[in-house]
Each structure stands twice: as C-alpha cells, then as structure tokens.
Amino acid sequence: MRFALVLDDWGELGLPYQPYPDGREPMNPTITDLTITEPTNSDPMITEATITDTPVDLADHIRSSSAEQHRSTEQRTFITELMRGQRSLADYTRYLAQYAWVYEALEELVVRVKSLDLFDPTLARLATIENDLTALGVSDWRREHPPLPATVAYVTHLRALAQSDNLRCLAHHYTRYLGDLSGGQAISRLVARHYGATAEQLSFYRFDDIGDIVKYKRAYRDGLNALTLSKEEVDDLVAEVDAAFTFNGAIFDELAA
Ligand code: HEM
User: Which CATH superfamily does the domain covering 58-256 fall into?
Assistant: First the structure.
C-alpha cells in the first residue's frame, strides 16, 4: 500500500486531539487529506509527506497548542479546592477581586489597541465583577483587595502592550472571555452550590447580551479562523495565549498560599 499524508499548513502532522477528560469536544485532527493506493511490486510501502498551503484551522490550532496549559491551570490547587467545595465564599471573593484588577487592565487595553471584529464590547466584565463584589460585601475593592504580586505582573504586562499589539491583546481576550464562557459557567454553578452564592453575586458569568453561549463561542472561533495571519503572527498569538495561561496560573498559586 502507498500512503500519502498531506500535512497541515505548518508542515506538522497533527496527532488526533486527546479530548479533555471532562468531555469537551475533541478537536479536528490537522491531517487534511489521506489517500491510500494499491502497492506496486517494486515499491511495497512508502510513506510520503507533502506540505500543502491549505489554511490552518487557527481556532483549533490555538486550542490544541494551549490544551496542556489549560489542563495545568484548571488543576491548580486553589481552583480544584474551590470547585470541590473545600474553600469558602470569602476565598471566592478574594479570587474575584484579583480579577477586578485584571479585567480593568484588559478592558482598557481592548479599547486602546487597534480594533478587531472579535473585540465585542458586550463581553466586558469589569462592571459585573464590581456589582458582584458589592453583593459579596466588598465596598471598596481597590482598598480591601490590593493586587497580589502575580496580579501586578499580569496587569503590568497588559498595560505595557502597545497600540499595535492587537493580536497579543486578542490572545488575552481569547484566554479570559472564552474561558469565562466555558469553564466559567461551571465555576458559577459550583460556587452557587457549595457556598450558597446568589444570582446577584454571580453576574460575572451571565452574558445576557450575547444570546446563546455555544453559538457565540462557535462564532468567535469562526472569527479567529477568518483572520489572515502570517506564520510569525500565529506563533506570536499562540505564545501570548501561553503567557496568558501562565499569568492566570500564577494568580491561582498565590491565592492558594
Ligand atoms: C475550573 C476550571 C476550569 C474548567 C472546569 C474549564 C473547563 C473548560 C471547558 C469545559 C471548556 C470547553 C468548552 C467548549 O468546548 O465549549 C473550556 C474551554 C476553555 N477554557 Fe477552561 N476551564 C477552566 C479553567 C480555565 C481557566 C482558568 C482558563 C484561563 C485562564 C480557561 C480558558 C479556557 C479557554 C480559553 C477555553 C476555550 C478553548 C477553545 O474553545 O478554544 N479555562 N474550559
């Protein structure tokens, strides 16, 4: 038999995606074509790879590149204990207050950098975080919950991005908002169940203006795929998503300490 494996745009033979253990949908493998032809006597079996210019599925590429980081971040002690009911509403409040700092910087950045269609203002979360913090008994989050060193590092990084860094901004945008629209929904349910948080305290996870969350996430991923980027830009984007996960993980580690 003769195999011709056609590889993805980056010349990589993508292995089929390992689905997340919690049942998230597996991603498409990046093999874009496979042909099998009959063997010839002189040439019994040849594996041959060619690179095509088939556009890469950027959304899948980002998701698969960050899958390991995602796993490691969602399994940080603080998050695991929070999700298992081993923490308290006060701990959740400390966590949320750190994200007030992060979203303040992120949302300032989103309006400062060169615009992208994906920068939908209805995603903005700072106002909902502030409302939730008030409902959780925090009257002045800046004074009562100063930023942890890891939060300072994250915010400093976001503030240092230039107006032309809209792809780097997109990396943070993707990591936070798609995360809120995904695992964030589970966090909301569990914080309500374990610690009795009320709807008024959990508006952060309600995206009333975007309609169906699943459809919205699909459209966001389509929006990623509609971007025309060079390989260098894609690599930068992926590296920045990686950095975004690292910043988030560092906050969780400090919250656990
Ligand atoms: C309790 C912890 C978490 C759980 C249970 C969780 C769970 C999930 C699930 C189930 C999805 C897939 C949703 C889908 O395919 O529609 C997802 C996607 C995602 N999560 Fe998490 N997550 C957690 C924490 C985080 C954190 C801390 C971040 C980032 C800081 C994050 C960022 C993302 C991103 C960016 C996606 C979108 C992936 C894509 O479709 O491209 N998650 N998460």
Answer: Heme oxygenase-like (1.20.910.10)
